[in-house]
């Protein structure tokens, strides 16, 4: 299984795009530059519902939704799910919700635990078991220009992201059929 993280200069291309459908710029870039070379392409979007997010959803097969365990994040989740449905209905019929991952979770905080419980109650098995804890090393890593896996791979946050990747990979493994002896 190969994965790829690519910076495609999408914002620049969206500004200069001379196309009738700017929501398809990313899809064209992925088809041109990535094609069949990778098993997974992860597109990390800003936490907004702008053109970058629309492009990403139009190009994606599924959407993994990180949700902070806070009240306002639930409101944002409702808006995102409505956008996902709109993109599915009008631009990308193959788009599905992968799952929700709970982030910045602090088990000592009652609100975090209540929001987490609400997510599980409402979305059931669409919520990853792995939670990403609130972790200073994860927060520090971008200021050093590094992903947390290179900044401090032994941190609780990095270990949790590895567990999430493992959980996701297990979910996507193709079952092997035993060959008869």
What is the number of beta strands?
5
Spatial order of strands in the largest sheet: 3-4-5
The major sheet is characterized as: 3 strands, parallel
Count, helices: 8
Summarize model confidence as the mean pLDDT. Answer: 84
CATH topology of the largest domain: Rossmann fold
% residues in beta strands:
15-25%
Question: What is the name of the CATH architecture of the largest domain?
Answer: 3-Layer(aba) Sandwich
Give the class-level CATH name of the largest domain.
Alpha Beta
**Poorly predicted tracts of residues:** 1-8
CATH homology superfamily of the largest domain: P-loop containing nucleotide triphosphate hydrolases
Shape: globular
Query: What's the N-to-C terminus distance?
Result: 27 Å
Query: What class would the helix/strand composition place it in?
Result: alpha/beta
Helix content: 40-55%
What is the alpha-carbon Rg in Å?
18 Å
Number of structural units classed as domains: 2
Account of the protein in words:
Helix 2 (25-33) packs across helix 3. Helix content is 47%, strand content 15%. The strands form two sheets. A three-stranded parallel beta sheet has the order 3-4-5. Strands 1-2 form a two-stranded parallel sheet. The longest helix has 20 residues, at 71-90. The chain has 181 residues and is of the alpha/beta class. The two termini are 27 Å apart. The model is unreliable at 1-8 (pLDDT under 50). It folds into two domains: 17-134, Rossmann fold (3-Layer(aba) Sandwich), CATH 3.40.50.300; 136-170, no CATH class. It has helices at 10-16, 25-33, 51-59, 71-90, 110-123, 136-140, 148-151, 156-172, and strands at 3-4, 40-41, 62-68, 96-105, 127-133.
């Amino acid at each position: 299984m190969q994965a790829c993280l690519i910076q495609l200069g999408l914002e620049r291309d969206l500004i200069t795009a001379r196309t009738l459908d700017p929501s398809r710029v990313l899809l064209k870039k992925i088809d041109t530059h990535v094609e069949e070379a990778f098993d997974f392409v992860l597109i990390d979007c800003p936490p907004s519902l702008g053109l970058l997010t629309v492009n990403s959803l139009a190009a994606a097969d599924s959407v993994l939704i990180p949700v902070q365990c806070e009240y306002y994040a639930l409101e944002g989740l409702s808006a995102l799910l409505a956008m996902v449905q709109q993109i599915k209905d009008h631009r990308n019929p193959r788009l599905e919700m992968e799952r929700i991952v709970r982030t910045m979770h602090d088990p000592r905080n009652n609100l975090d635990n209540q929001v987490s419980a609400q997510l599980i109650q409402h979305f059931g098995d669409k919520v990853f078991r792995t939670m990403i804890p609130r972790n200073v090393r994860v927060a520090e890593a971008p200021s050093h220009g590094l992903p947390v896996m290179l900044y401090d791979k032994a941190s609780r946050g990095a270990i949790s992201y590895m567990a999430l990747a493992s959980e996701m990979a297990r979910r996507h493994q193709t079952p092997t059929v035993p060959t008869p002896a």
